[in-house]
Amino acid sequence: MRVDELGERALVKQLARIGYPPNATLPPGDDAGAVPWGGGHLLLKTDGFAYRQVALQGMSPEAVGWRAVTAVASDLVAKLARPLGFTLALAAPGEARVETLVGLTRGAARAAAAYGAALLGGDTNAGGELAIYASGVGVARAVLPRAAEPGDGVYLLGDRWGLSGAAIHAHYHGIPLDAYPAIRRAGHWPKARLEVLALGAVRDALSGSADSSDGLAETLWQLAEALGVGIHLEALPVFPEVRAYATEAGVDAHELVLYGGEEYEVVLVVKPGGEAAVERALRAAGVPHHCVGRVVREMGVWYRGEVLARRGYAHFQD
Amino acid sequence: MRVDELGERALVKQLARIGYPPNATLPPGDDAGAVPWGGGHLLLKTDGFAYRQVALQGMSPEAVGWRAVTAVASDLVAKLARPLGFTLALAAPGEARVETLVGLTRGAARAAAAYGAALLGGDTNAGGELAIYASGVGVARAVLPRAAEPGDGVYLLGDRWGLSGAAIHAHYHGIPLDAYPAIRRAGHWPKARLEVLALGAVRDALSGSADSSDGLAETLWQLAEALGVGIHLEALPVFPEVRAYATEAGVDAHELVLYGGEEYEVVLVVKPGGEAAVERALRAAGVPHHCVGRVVREMGVWYRGEVLARRGYAHFQD
């Protein structure tokens, strides 16, 4: 079978299980891989993409390099692991500009430093198009898997919900972002939220977490499907700039929140009764948070009572 | 400037320094990156390649996946780090076969297990051609950098010298390997030598090490140039099967040893006076070893008194 017949979602599910170790401390297909190490956990993650896939209008090579490391850092942080080091592997055609590769590497190094970690070299290869593979290693005392139980509360952490979606929408529709600095910042320079690591102190109040980079709706559907549970969404954060952009662009602001993608924010699943302690920890750490719904027994994802359409990004099929 | 004008060697040298942390415990451009961690060192490495670059005649996707993890494992082991986990990221065109990707992942998982480590998932992306990026993390009590001082002895560890070169030569010249099982094994299923980790016990007798995957001559030139020293090669191991193949193929057996590539073996640099202890440790660990020369003050590489030509493999320029 061809990979474009199978589709990315089914392919990833199949590959993620191959040889995945029985002593792993995160399930296969989670945001990162983890093995026990020194009384805690060692996490490893690789994320690759084509330059043209992610370079939004006006985005510099530095910003793309920053984003590559940020995507990996966000996965590690969502699992409560502190990033220690990153590598950056580049594939480039012979006619690529050295300045572009230097810019990518500089951006990756800046991001690594911003996360208190090191850029530990990388690799370059000839390739048909410019592609970037970032890898990162982190350590955690206790990890947070993709897990949820009926009755749990669902929270969105951070403040990029809808903003990254608006930045991507603006890119594809040629809409200038001069009047929307927060949208531009979320799209060009998203920052992984190291402050989320403070949740380690309230680990017992948590069921699980997921990094959202495929879009909120897709992330929730992945959780629901993998865990055999349902998620009822009741409220969504719609920030003023997202509302203003949506009005100008003639789109539904909720669509930007649900189908944006590349948020690099955390979806947090909190045990019943744990809400107060978790909210206190998030406030103390300065992490914006929004209680958006609840986990139910029946498999599916609903938004205000209606089944939420699944239209996430999938490679091989667009 | 275009990357094919600058060339891979100069590009890698430029990129390797960007943001490389001052507290790193291996120098930029070494076989892996390393930071201090928990009284020891945490090492991270990524290695990428195009499938068609490395799949020799008759090599299965499993063998290519095995090789991807082996290349990374060999770099970690050469620095005296024990591998703990690997990831595998794949880029594939839509028409690629699912079976190929499954095979690559199975091979990678087998290799990880063979090295006592875990395959911790990965990533898939659409790409113009099939490409593989393996990353690995390892830990070491004491690391061994690319270092050498005049007076040091130079050793080749392992038994694939010339054999991997013969396998690559056979591939490009359409020569069947049925009569050469050791050459085929070295080319298709090279195994990183975990036994080399036994050298941790004689770390004080060692100056440095380098993984050889660009070919012996290129590896020695890299060492000489980076360290400002010279290397006098006096003897080279030429194994019977390499000699037989060279005779049949009408090539110089020494050329196969010097310019082979993809050995995934270690070049070891031993302090003067340390030879006996190191040889004892290698014998006890069952690591084949060959004393091949000595480090000198004058920069360069010589083989039996003649300057050794530098003809390593470089991306972007072939």
UniProtKB/TrEMBL annotation, chains A, B:
Catalysed reaction, written as an equation: thiamine phosphate + ATP = thiamine diphosphate + ADP
Annotated Mg(2+) 5 binding sites: 214
InterPro entries associated with the record: PurM-like_C_dom, PurM-like_C_sf, PurM-like_N, PurM-like_N_sf, ThiL-like
Chain residues that bind Mg(2+) 4: 31, 75
Biochemical pathway: Cofactor biosynthesis; thiamine diphosphate biosynthesis; thiamine diphosphate from thiamine phosphate: step 1/1
Keyword Transferase carried by entry: yes
Similarity section: Belongs to the thiamine-monophosphate kinase family.
Family annotation (SUPFAM superfamilies): PurM C-terminal domain-like, PurM N-terminal domain-like
EC numbers on record: 2.7.4.16
Signal sequence region: none
Domain PurM-like C-terminal: 149-298
Protein name (database record): Thiamine-monophosphate kinase
Pfam family, one: AIRS_C
UniProt-annotated binding residues for Mg(2+) 3: 31, 75, 211
Anything else known: Reaction mechanism of ThiL seems to utilize a direct, inline transfer of the gamma-phosphate of ATP to TMP rather than a phosphorylated enzyme intermediate.
Binding, Mg(2+) 1: 46-47, 123
